[in-house]
Amino acid sequence: MSMKKAKVLLIGWDAADWKIIWPLVNSGQMPALKSLMSKGVYGNMSTMNPPYSPMLWSSVATGKTPDKHGVLGFIEVNPDGNGIRPVTVKSRKSRALWNIFHNQGLKSNLVGWWPSFPAEPINGVVVSDKFQKVNKDPKIKTNIAKGTIHPDHFTSKIRDLRMFPHEVTDAHILPFIPKASEINQEKDASLATFAKLLAENTSVHAAATNLMRTTDWDFMGVYYDLIDHFCHAFMKFHPPKLAAIPDTKYQLYKDVIAGAYRYQDMMLERKLELIDKNTTVIVMSDHGYESGHRRILKMPKYPAAPALEHRNFGMFVAAGPNIMKAKKVFGLGLIDVAPTILHMFNLPVGRDMDGKVALEIFKETNEVKYIDSWDKIKGEFGEHMSDDDHLLSDKETMQQLIDLGYIDKPDDNVEIAVLKTNCDIKHNLARVYLGKKDYEKAKAILLELVDKDYPVYKESSINGKNKKVLERQGFKIGDSVVDKIPFYMDLLKVALSEKDYNLSEEYLKILRTADKRFEINTSVSEAKILIGQGKVNDALKCLEQARDKNPNSLVWFQIGKAYEKINDLENAKIAFESAIKFETDSAKSHSALAKILYELKDYEESVDHALTAIELVKYFPEAHYTLGQSLEQLGDLENAKKAYETAASLKPKTFYRAEAAIENIKENLEANNCFRDKSEYRYRENQIVIVSGLPRSGTSLMMQMLSAGGLDILTDKNRTADHSNPKGYYEYNPVMSLHKDNTWLGKAKNKSLKVVAPLLKFLNPEYRYKVIFMNRDLTEVIKSQQRMIGKNPEVLPTKLFQAYNKHLKQVEVWKNKEPGVELIYINYKDVIDDALTIAHKVESFIGLELDKQDMMACVDGRLYRNRV
Questions:
Q1: Which of 379-383, 404-408, 817-821, 841-845 has the lowest mean pLDDT?
Q2: Spatial contact of 58 and 92, defined as CB atoms under 8 Å apart
Q3: Are the beta carbons of 197 and 259 closer than 8 angstroms?
Q4: Rounded to whole angstroms, what are the CA distances from 652 to 331, 438, 647, 655?
Q5: What is the pLDDT of residue 213?
Q6: Whole-angstrom Cα distance, residue 356 to residue 551?
Q7: 3-class secondary structure, 303
Q8: Residue 371 in 3-state DSSP?
Q9: CB contact at 8 A, 481 and 454
Q10: Which residues, 6+ apart, have CB-to-CB distance to 527 below 8 Å?
């Protein structure tokens, strides 16, 4: 894989979600992204906890989790401790991709990345996230602050590319809000919000395309917050209409979100026009955004509460000279992006990076090279050397974070503002450790936070400048300035994870006696405690009350776990299926359902849900283990062994059950399955010639050949020829009920009859059978079947693959144990490529002379569609 001319364009669409994208792509409203998908790979991108954008995009840039890279929220404390500010690049303590490229002599451009201010002095151009932030008041001039752009002299070249909210006209507004003229702007500030967000992202786009046209670069990263910020402002109006939304508001703003995606696609289209054939393009998001029934109209008073609407999966699309084409990929995470891009440039990956190279996206791969840590290498990396921290105040960005609800308005008392910010940063770090299941580190931070005595709000504070803000947040005189409820909520999670149910009960009591500002629903936690204490029936009563009040995926999942505990598998199955209906991309629900289905001996369905869980979250050892169990029961020992091995490799500790399963498989694994003919190659009196195979495997063609060769066919001709089978189907209706009634088979003596593979085992043993079993590449079979029923032939259902593999194995077992059955396998491709040889084989098998020339004449290679 040559990397000499490699270029990579990384485009970040904050909060872009497949649930919105797919309908727009399928209806032709996002042609640029659609073209990229057809040329490359696409799939989910899993996010991390907590899903706060500056933390996540820093993980994208470094390949590391926030505890390592150091960006831990939306705001940070000034180095002198005398105030707070929006998070800056100086919080990042790990080197990003562009620092590494600088060291390696490569040129990078960076536009709008969050955070990237103050601009780092790398080899290339940085237009930081401060560039597009302007004052919405046209009377107030917004200068470009020092540190916004690197190199400084580039400022004069692009300063005029900024768009201001007052420059947004009806031509910009109407494609998003066709009825904008009906808005009363004195009472509704939505148009002002719209203009600000549109102007900012247009500024980012203008700077990015300018750099693409006028500078040389090897790597370029561009970040847009358009979709995320539009969603926070307008998602509540997106279809389907929520009951609480007034119809007048819905009619005004229902098209805004789709408009944001279309505009993002238009900007992508322009970028694709500016790249060459050697450029790999990646478009991705850091998380998704709720667009259905889980949208929140009344935001709870949690810290950074709007992030509650962030979905666990974003999107990922990549295309380029060495990227696979039109392929769906699975299990990607944010931390995998940086290692994968380093690999594209043939550079080593840091062993201290948490992510892995996504080798599955490449056509050809080199062996991944490693280095202990890029952070330990001495040399020039284009990093900040001075401490001009007085430059970093940013009122516009701070106000936007407040407007979006990501942060509360800072307290006028600087000491309290700093204290709250330090607590938020520590809490976010604890949540990172929770996400990594490092419970000891999480617990140590959380206990420190709850054990500390904090100042309380006095009457002067409650009735001061921040009176309205504090009232909205629910604070009153005597309340601690730092609310401990969020810390206790996470301590409860830790105690439950460690199965310390007595401690969990203590934390639950504290939460229930605390102030109700946070509107906590503790039913699920209570049920977990009851289950842990063996009080399953009490847990079910608690959960059923919660379900009746507010049915959701989390409650249904816990109901399933309760039923599983008492071995009520059928009710557990219903509960997990209900959880999936509420949240289709819940990996844990799919994995739990797969486990129940295995216990119920529904191995095919179990495989399907285990694979779905793995597709959503690749690093899921329990799902891999269940997959191995079900595949083993289906007889697919080779793939079962791989699943067990994967499960064992993903567990941080030895996975003894998986290790034992691997040992058993190795002992029992036989040679590769071999489909062998079973035939005496002679005519038998009153024999019945059966043509069988999987659907769309060439059975109709073989029936036509036998008819042309002179053999009588048993068919009622009820099913006429069509586009999928232009020469006819040769079917006989009673075959469909063969499993109920096989007494009519005497009518087929000395004739040929078509029977699908799953029904072969119901053939009446009274007769002798000559079975011609048609084989065809399973991918071709399923593509043909998908096209026949009007579905996308490129989307191949896992369940069908597993079911068809099972049928093939069952046929092999069946023909060996049935003394009245002789069977030969005929490959569909061989019929197309060498019909005469196949005609000779069939004639010999049946034991009757056939007209082989007429049989050959039936074969029309033009009908061989869906060839792999």
A1: 404-408
A2: yes
A3: no
A4: 18, 11, 10, 8
A5: 97
A6: 37
A7: coil
A8: strand
A9: yes
A10: 539, 540, 542, 543, 546, 558, 562
Angstrom distance (rounded) from CA 450 to CA 491: 10
In whole angstroms, what is the distance from residue 105 CA to residue 396 CA? 35
pLDDT of the residue at 471 = 66
824 is in which domain, residue-wise?
A: 688-863
pLDDT band at 672 (very low <50, low <70, confident <90, very high): very low
The CATH number of the domain where 789 resides is what?
3.40.50.300
Query: Which sign does the torsion angle of CA 634, 639, 645, 648 carry?
Result: negative
pLDDT at residue 671 tops 50:
no
Per-residue pLDDT, 724: 56
**Can you spell out the DSSP letters for 144-186?**
--TTSEESGGGHHHHGGG---GGG--HHHHTTT-TTGGG--TT
Strand-pair category, 149-150 with 124-127 = antiparallel
Let me know: does 352 contact 84? Beta carbons within 8 Å. no
b or e along 417-451 (b: 16 or more beta carbons within 10 Å of the residue's beta carbon)?
bbbbbbbbbbbbbbbbbbbbeebeebbebbeebee
Q: What is the pLDDT of residue 223?
A: 98
Q: Do 285 and 181 fall within a single domain?
A: yes
State pLDDT tens for residues 67-117.
999 999 988 888 888 888 889 999 999 999 999 999 999 999 999 999 999
Q: What is the pLDDT averaged over residues 773-801?
A: 62
Q: In the listed set 520, 536, 555, which residue is the last one of a domain according to the structure?
A: 520
154-189, pLDDT tens digit by residue? 999 999 999 999 999 999 999 999 999 999 999 999
**pLDDT category of residue 410 using cuts at 50, 70 and 90:** low
Helix axes 501-513, 485-497, angle to 10 degrees: 160
**Helix axis angle, 587-599 to 553-565, nearest 10°:** 30
Q: Please identify, among 478, 495, 520, the residue that sits at the C-terminal boundary of a domain.
A: 520
Integer CA distances (angstroms), 551 to 301, 310, 351, 510, 544, in order? 22, 20, 44, 25, 9
One domain for residues 336 and 422? no
pLDDT of res. 409? 61
